[in-house]
Design a protein that fits this description.
This protein has 891 residues and is mostly helical. It has a domain at 108-203 and 244-324: Winged helix-like DNA-binding domain superfamily/Winged helix DNA-binding domain (Arc Repressor Mutant, subunit A), CATH 1.10.10. The chain is built from 38 helices and 17 strands. The strands form seven sheets. The chain has a three-stranded antiparallel sheet. Strand 7 and strand 8 form a beta hairpin. The protein is globular, with a radius of gyration of 27 Å. The two termini are 42 Å apart. The model is unreliable at 1-98, 200-238 and 333-891 (pLDDT under 50). The structure holds a DNA duplex (15 and 15 nucleotides).
DNA sequence: TAATCCCGCCAGCGG
DNA sequence: CCGCTGGCGGGATTA
């Protein structure tokens, strides 16, 4: 009789009423509440009690008629317990109803978040955290069985490892990247082609799939690689069972994502693939079961911030799917060993593989990633066992590295051009709606500069409720924008009154001021005056990029391409981590989402840059890709001459290492991040807001023309790249202000507006103190900065100083006078914060919120933050086009 | 109705 | 035999 889902959860309410029923007291609503309860009660016990307490019938009745209290009397017939219950308190019922844990509240995803919240994403190497399943189960108020589900998935990613019966060891995400890399490599071997097919044509997929699967590498192989289970458990018997294990499935599922071009995998496809591997026959029931399991896994992965749910619309209709939002690039990728731009990347191969921390590696396909402490690319096998035995201090990693390559520069330039165009457009036509842009984009990249924008419309996932959907854009009036353009000459003065102040971290654009303020924790890419040529070229280039990609990776029909694009657009891969819903994310970022900056994807290929406006999918690429792609090889030249300025800054928040932070409400973070990632971003600016984050990275490109700034990337010493990467100061989120006052002696700007030297200031306000970063670029200076240096010890502790060693250095060297100034005047920051300029939508919010939400143990109301996400997502304003700023949503 | 996925039965396994 | 694991699929919830 008892409904399967009896009241268990309800006890929560009961607790309140304890007084009424002594009996009830014992019932503690553990589950719902995050607060761990020491009470001896096991979840089951609670359950039972509850069940006994209330009969399902009653509940139903109650549900149906909330108001129908009178029933109480009659209720007696049922269980006396129930009766008592009712009698006890009417209120109870209501609460009952209210609190009645909905299925969602009991979801595995939520449970997983709670679980994760208990452990630091990046535990200190010293601390060994052991997890007792029983303990956790009781604390979380669930059956142990559920914990197994979570742990199995976590184990597949090496976040935990089983040490003994009922005992697991928490490793955190230190080695997550490595693990993912390994999975990716393995995945490529196994599913590479397969996935290609899928993307190509779904239908064919299956078809092909059948063929393929046989060809695929024997399971044994992958097993070995992937097998995380204890080494010992090689026994056949054990394996048999383990093969089906959630663990394995989880790994395979992840592989599919990593191999997928679009990073989107539909459940049915995944199920089919997974089934195929195991068995040739796919019966319906099996399929269903597989899907169920995949949901379980997906829930955990979602909690980890690695994937998010999306919908893919295909010929057949709308299908549930998941999109990978975790790290995508892994240094030293096998497939394209040479992927690194040869020219730009001087680093010895070995190093690259190793990817020293701070160093960014670009892989052929992937963008670059910051690598934590992995030592070189290891053969899959080798890595396998490493689990996180050695904790690295990812925290330190945080700096950003600059990838230098001409290509890179060119790309940047292109981006800038695009941005500029956009801006111009906006300026010209305030009205342009995103849609319009989108459309144009779809139609042809060429036609409008905007085209590069990702096409959102295509797939549902674009629309996702996830934060990504909308960027809060800084709203700048056209006028303001124009100001920006014209201003170029103004050196950045921190003191400038104009400096927008961001009160709440809202980005502000002061009218007359050349400065823009963004909420802290955002990543920006700014572009200023580009020449027309560039712009034009850019578009085609962009398109090409897309194409190129397609070519490279797999032939994709235009339609497909578009989809892909949209997909990619939808979520900026770069931000992947951002998404993490779970509080954890903050920590993760350090390692996971290191500052991924731009990496020139294909240095070699750059030649292709010919402008061919073909496919509409230009920006489809993940953010990372995006950046890379955008830069067209050809661009560099133009850039130099054109004296375009590009400013790209990225900021990533690093969540405080503090565990406390972990607790933050992730939701907001994502949101903001998501927003940032929005399609637009790619074009001009990419903002990754991290909630309260502390560190962020910047990539700035100053004007190139005259004296392009040459950054000395460790790798590319002499590059004269207009870009500067600034490592973020770790802890504090700080506002960044950039005012590139570039005069563009070089740039003949056709567009009056931009061509002129433009000065743009961004200020990002972090939650708390923000260290203001002031960056001013004036034309020619080329301070050399080593990208890696972010860690610079030299830097004063001060946040402002923190900014980046690079910046600091540059600043020191250059100073205002110098073309590029990186200033850090605190004063500015302060000014900014108070900002009133509300140009930006309210949506933008400072990281502060997070703090708000963070509640240690309790995730707070997950629901609540989810809601936020949704809301935020939606807010996009035309303004966005110009600048996309992610912000945490308002509450 | 379809999509999700919670729940807990029950088998495999190791001690 | 017992308890830990975890595959599996019924069927409740949600969308």
């Amino acid at each position: 009789m008892a409904p399967k889902t009896p009241i268990k959860n309800e006890p929560v309410d009961l607790s309140k009423q304890k007084g009424c029923t002594p009996e009830r007291n014992p019932i503690t609503p553990v589950k719902l509440t995050d607060r761990p309860q020491p009470d001896p009660w096991t979840p089951t016990a609670n359950l039972k009690m509850l069940v006994s307490a209330a009969s399902p019938d009653m509940r139903d009745r109650e549900k149906k008629k909330e108001l129908f209290r009178p029933i109480e009397n009659s209720e007696q017939c049922d269980t006396h317990d129930s009766l008592q219950y009712d009698m006890v308190d009417d209120c109870t019922i209501d609460e009952f109803e209210k609190q009645r844990p909905s299925r969602k509240q009991k979801s595995l995803g939520l449970l997983c978040q709670k679980f994760l919240a208990r452990y630091p994403s990046y535990p200190l190497s010293t601390e060994k955290t052991t997890i007792s399943l029983d303990e956790v189960a009781s604390i979380l108020g669930v059956e142990r069985r559920r914990i197994y589900d979570i742990v199995n998935v976590l184990e597949s990613l090496h976040l935990v490892s089983r040490v003994a019966k009922n005992q697991y060891c928490w490793h955190g995400r230190h080695n997550l990247r490595q693990t993912l890399k390994t999975l990716q490599e393995e995945g490529e071997l196994q599913y590479g082609e397969l996935m290609t097919f899928f993307h190509h044509k779904e239908q064919d997929l299956e078809y092909k799939f059948g063929e393929r699967k046989k060809e695929t590498i024997p399971d044994s192989q992958d097993r070995s690689l992937l097998d995380f289970s204890e080494p010992d458990c090689t026994s056949a018997s054990a394996n048999s069972r383990k093969d089906k294990s959630l663990r394995i499935m989880s790994q395979k599922f992840v592989m599919l994502f990593l191999v997928s071009k679009t990073k989107i995998v539909t459940l049915d496809i995944a199920a089919k693939i997974l089934i195929e591997e195991t068995q040739d026959t796919v019966d319906h029931s099996k399929f269903k079961t597989k899907v169920r399991r995949l949901y379980d896994i997906a829930n955990v992965l979602t909690s980890l911030g690695l994937i998010k749910k999306v919908h893919v619309t295909e010929e057949r209709g709308r299908k549930p799917a998941f999109k990978w939002i975790g790290p995508v690039e892994f240094p030293g990728k096998t497939d394209e060993p040479t992927g690194h731009s040869p020219t730009s990347n001087p680093l010895p191969r070995t190093q690259r593989g190793a990817c020293a921390p701070y160093q960014i590696c670009a892989t052929g396909k992937q963008r670059f990633t910051r690598h934590a402490s992995f030592n070189g690319a290891q053969p899959c096998e080798g890595t396998k066992r490493r689990v996180s035995s050695e904790p690295n201090s990812p925290h330190q990693e945080r700096q950003a590295c600059i990838v230098n390559s001409d290509e890179y520069c060119s790309k940047m330039i292109n981006l800038a051009a695009v941005c500029r165009q956009k801006i111009e457009e906006d300026t010209g036509n305030k009205v342009c709606s995103a849609e319009t842009i989108l459309n144009s984009a779809r139609n042809s990249s060429i036609s409008s500069p905007l085209s590069p924008l990702p096409v959102l419309g295509d797939s549902d996932f674009c629309v996702n409720p996830l934060p990504q959907a909308v960027f809060p854009v800084v709203q700048a009036d056209v006028s303001s924008l124009s100001l920006t353009n014209g201003i170029g000459s103004q050196p950045l003065h921190p003191s400038t009154p104009a400096a927008s102040k961001t009160e709440n971290g809202k980005p502000t654009l002061l009218p007359n001021q050349p400065f823009l303020c963004f909420p802290s924790s955002s990543l920006f890419m700014l572009c200023s005056g580009l020449q027309e040529n560039n712009l034009r070229e850019t578009l085609p280039i962009t398109g090409e990029v897309g194409n190129r990609r397609a070519e490279t990776q797999a032939p994709v029909p235009p339609a497909t391409c578009q989809k892909r694009c949209s997909h990619k657009c939808a979520s900026p891969s770069a931000t992947a981590d951002d998404e993490e819903p779970a509080a954890k994310k903050q920590n993760m970022e350090q390692s996971d989402v290191p500052l991924s900056l731009v990496v020139p994807k294909k240095p070699f290929e750059s030649p292709k840059a010919e402008p061919t406006p073909r496919s509409g999918c230009m920006s489809a690429v993940h953010l990372e890709d995006f950046h890379l792609d955008l830069a067209s090889p050809a661009a560099p030249e133009a850039v130099d001459k054109e004296s375009t300025k590009l400013l790209d800054s990225q900021e990533q928040e690093k969540q405080s290492q503090n565990k406390d932070l972990d607790e933050h409400s992730p939701g907001k973070e994502h949101i903001s991040k998501e927003n940032a990632s929005q399609p637009f971003l790619p074009q001009y600016l990419y903002v990754q807001p991290t909630a309260g984050v502390s560190s962020f990275n910047f990539l700035l490109s100053a004007n190139q023309a005259a004296g392009a700034i040459s950054l000395a990337a460790s790798q590319v010493p002499s590059l004269s790249v207009p870009c500067v990467v600034v490592p973020s100061a770790a802890l504090a989120s700080f506002p960044l202000v950039c005012s590139p006052t570039i005069t563009s002696p070089l740039s003949p700007v056709p567009d009056g507006s931009f061509s002129a030297p433009t000065s743009v200031n961004f200020s990002m306000s972090g939650l708390a103190s923000t260290t203001p970063v002031f960056i001013g670029t004036t034309a020619v200076v080329a301070p050399k900065v080593s990208p890696t240096p972010s860690m610079d010890p030299q830097q004063p502790a001060h946040p402002s100083l923190h900014l980046s060693p690079v910046l600091a250095r540059s600043c020191g060297a250059v100073k205002l006078d110098s073309p590029v100034c990186v200033g850090h005047p605190v004063t500015l920051l302060k000014l900014q914060q108070p900002s009133s300029a509300p140009l930006t939508p309210k949506s933008i919010r400072p990281a502060c919120h997070e703090a708000f939400f963070k509640t240690p143990g309790s995730l707070g109301d997950p629901v609540a933050w989810k809601k936020n996400e949704g809301n935020q997502t939606r807010n996009a304003s035309s303004v966005q086009r110009r600048l996309e700023i992610s912000s945490t949503s308002a509450d």
